[in-house]
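Budget justification aside, the reviewers requested a transparent look at the raw inputs and outputs of the sequence design task funded under Objective 1. We therefore reproduce one unedited record. The lines immediately below are the structure tokens for a 240-residue chain.
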């Protein structure tokens, strides 16, 4: 699976967003209808996104946190390794909770091998790091935007580029049972996407086209990355 560093938020007309979002039209976002992009801001009505990573002798991990008002969601992906003992394993964490100041009060679902664990923890979100109490993650550059389809439309094509070593993440709200159609094209055939469901299920990895029946209601992550060098691409998303 491609790792995560940048993201944008994409929502369809199937679920409305707050009318107080600051919006503007971008030339880099095109479709057969008007598409608006709300840039990351300090407004309480805007989703804030934070990306983090850590790499040391024992673990490689990425974390991303989304904050909408005081609501917190997110995901952690980690690989634990002990070369001396020849031990390797990986786990994912689904995060849900609330924000109080710089404290994140989280309900965490951890899936490691065949085991699922549920815990409650308080993490600290600093200006340049994320402290879980066990691990300190370093903040990575993160672009947060929200794309909204025009009323009555359920698809859009985003024209964008992704720099080598980074990822663009689109967050799409959709309902269980709906179908999501995606297609990505790139000038040098060097862009792919992953799709992750709200329940943490990985639906697609390194794909260029897919049609998915959605297993849950919530925010789906569409993660775009380049397979070699920088990539200029067009991503078409349709919900029906």
């Amino acid at each position: 699976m491609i790792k995560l560093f940048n993201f944008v938020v994409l929502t369809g007309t199937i679920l409305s967003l707050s009318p107080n979002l600051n919006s503007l039209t971008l030339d880099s976002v095109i479709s057969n209808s008007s598409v608006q992009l709300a840039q990351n801001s300090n407004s309480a009505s805007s989703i804030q996104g934070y990306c983090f990573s850590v790499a040391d002798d024992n673990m490689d991990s990425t974390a991303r946190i989304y904050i909408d008002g005081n609501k917190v969601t997110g995901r952690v992906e980690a690989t634990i390794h002990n070369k001396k003992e020849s031990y390797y394993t990986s786990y994912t964490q689904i995060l849900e909770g609330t924000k109080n100041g710089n404290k994140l009060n989280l309900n965490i679902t951890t899936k490691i091998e065949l085991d699922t664990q549920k815990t409650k923890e308080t993490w600290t979100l600093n200006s340049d790091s994320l402290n879980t109490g066990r691990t300190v993650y370093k903040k990575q550059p993160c672009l947060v935007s929200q794309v909204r389809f025009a009323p009555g439309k359920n698809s859009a094509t985003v024209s964008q580029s992704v720099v080598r070593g980074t990822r663009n993440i689109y967050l799409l709200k959709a309902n269980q049972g709906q179908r999501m159609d995606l297609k990505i094209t790139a000038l040098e055939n060097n862009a792919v996407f992953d799709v992750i469901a709200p329940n943490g299920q990985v639906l697609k990895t390194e794909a260029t086209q897919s049609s998915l029946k959605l297993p849950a209601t919530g925010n789906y992550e569409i993660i775009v990355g380049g397979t070699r060098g920088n990539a200029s691409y067009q991503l078409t998303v349709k919900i029906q």
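Residues 3-45 have pLDDT under 50 and may be disordered. The chain is about 0% helix and 60% strand. Computational costs for records of this kind are itemized in the attached budget.
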